[in-house]
Structures are given as C-alpha cells and as structure tokens.
Fold this sequence. Notes:
Layout: H1 3-9, H2 23-33, E1 45-50, H3 53-62, E2 72-79, H4 91-109, E3 113-118, H5 123-133, E4 139-148
Antiparallel strand pairs: 1-2, 2-4, 3-4
Bound molecules: flavin mononucleotide.
Flavin mononucleotide binds at residues 11-12, 14, 65-66, 115-118, 157, 185, 187.
Amino acid sequence: MEAIETIFKRRSIRKYLDKKVEKDTIITLLKAATAAPTAANCQPWEFIVTDEEEKLVELRDKLIFARYNAPVAIVVCGNMKLSHKGPSQEMWVQDCSAAIQNILLAATSIGLGSVWIGIYPLENNIKPLKKILNVPEYVTPLGIVYVGYPAEEKEARNRFDEKRVYWQEYDPNRKHRAKDKPVIGHY
Ligand SMILES: Cc1cc2nc3c(=O)[nH]c(=O)nc-3n(C[C@H](O)[C@H](O)[C@H](O)COP(=O)(O)O)c2cc1C
C-alpha cells in the first residue's frame, strides 16, 4: 500500500477477531516504531508487549477507555534515564508519539487494525498500568497501541478544513464555530 493511501486509510479499530498476531509481525511494528524521528536522535522509548490474556483482562478492567478485545497491547514508554535532561526532557512525549503513529500506520499498511489509548498525563491511567506491568518509577507509559486483526471496517475520513490553515501568518480575527469539549474523553 502506498504510504499516502495508508495515512488516509488509518482509523481507530475497536473490535478485533479472535486471532493471534504473529511475533514476527509484532517485531515489524516495533521496527516501524523505532524508525520514527526523535529529538537529537535520543530514542528515549521502551516497549512492553503484552499478549497474555490475563494481563490484557487486567488492563481492560483498570482502564475504562481501553475495554476492547485486542489480542496484543504495545505499551510505548519513555525512560527518563534515556531521555534528555533539563528543559528538553519533555521532548520524550513527542518522540514516543511519533513512534506510536508509526505503529498505527505500519499496522494499517499490513492489514491490521489498531487504536491509540492515551495514558500519559492521566495519573488515573498511569498508576494502575505501571502496577499491572511492573513499570519502574523512572519509566512513564505514554500510550498503549492495541493491535489485532480487525472485526470492523471504517471509511477513510477527510477532516481537512481550510479554516484551520493560515498562510504566511496567523489571523486572530478569524472566527471558529465554538465547540464544547468534555473535560475527559468519551470513548
Ligand atoms: C492521544 C490519544 C489518546 C487516545 N485515547 C484513546 C482511548 O483512550 N480510547 C480510545 O478508544 N481511543 C483513543 N484514541 C483514539 C481517538 O479516539 C481517535 O483517534 C479519534 O476519535 C479519531 O478517530 P480515528 O482514529 O478513527 O481517525 C486516542 C487518540 C489519541 C491521539
């Protein structure tokens, strides 16, 4: 699949077939993750791959926005011992986000479904996840990518809105339709 086609095709898949994802395929996804760019090539990431039903059930039980039947969870973490120190430290979030997006796109391109589950910065998510997966204090889980063979199909979306684009400089007078956003998500 062409990269541009994959980018438009990717959607969040929340229903999966009861079918394992082969280890080699998971490794391919992790290779895609680590092909992402990182600030000063820091690569502060670590990955916890969980495909045991017991752990997956625990994750679903504790994370209310992660109650989907995916056979694999890839937890993308930033290791503060590997990250930059000082004001650049927070770059780990962007580095690991790029890795997550690469996993989503790689999964789509090989016919797998996936969804990004946000963990950081919500303490209510971070704490139980760290406990379940035995994650030390200096490692922070940014997000989970659920992966599996899709049991639902979704149309590609076109969200391009030229009102969100400014050419040359920002125009603060441009009016946007106000949209109330909930305090937390609503999955
Ligand atoms: C940072 C982040 C956190 C997200 N967290 C969740 C989540 O906890 N549960 C979930 O079902 N989807 C989650 N999503 C997926 C979004 O809901 C989804 O991307 C959005 O609704 C757009 O739909 P699409 O991915 O099909 O284009 C998250 C996405 C991002 C980028």
